[in-house]
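Morning!

This is the sequence you dropped in the shared folder:
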Amino acid sequence: MTKRWMSWVVVAAVAFGGVGFALGGAVMGARAEERPTAILPVTPCAVTTPVVAAATAPSPAPSVTPAPVTPAPARPTGELSIRRMQVTSDIDHREPIDHPSTFDDSDERIYAFVDVANPSSEPRQLLVTFENGQRVTGLVTLEIPANSARFRTWAFTRLTRSPGEWTAIVRDEGGQVLASDEFEIR
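The structure's back. Tokens below.
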């Protein structure tokens, strides 16, 4: 085996963790009589000089220009998560006082209470609506601060006077429904 071939074996051994096998075959720039015809064991060795200095410099490889990398669009690092959502007749100390399934058509306000987490580094928004299949009221936008493990907020409406089944719906900025709670107006 020639000195040129042995330098490539050292390079291969170091590149693959110091142990392994060198397979016979064409080596860059090696002549046919320099190619090994058998599988040669490669033993670990201590390299005290840089591998590049130990190897004979091969002829320059053609330069390859990598494809340009297009960065992904910036997105919040976390998703909003609704911990709790419910309709209520009032809020006291940032908590709903009840969870009725029916309201009287004379009730002044109907609240949609939302307990939400926003792990994102950006503030996010929620949209709260009150819907009955024929009418949409409320349309309240709630601002959720960035990096909030727990944020309690609410929206209310005074415009749900029509008797029947209603639903309070919480949506994200993209319009995806995150939570809802049904109630009845009598």
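Headline: The chain has a mean pLDDT of 74.

More detail when I'm at my desk.
O.
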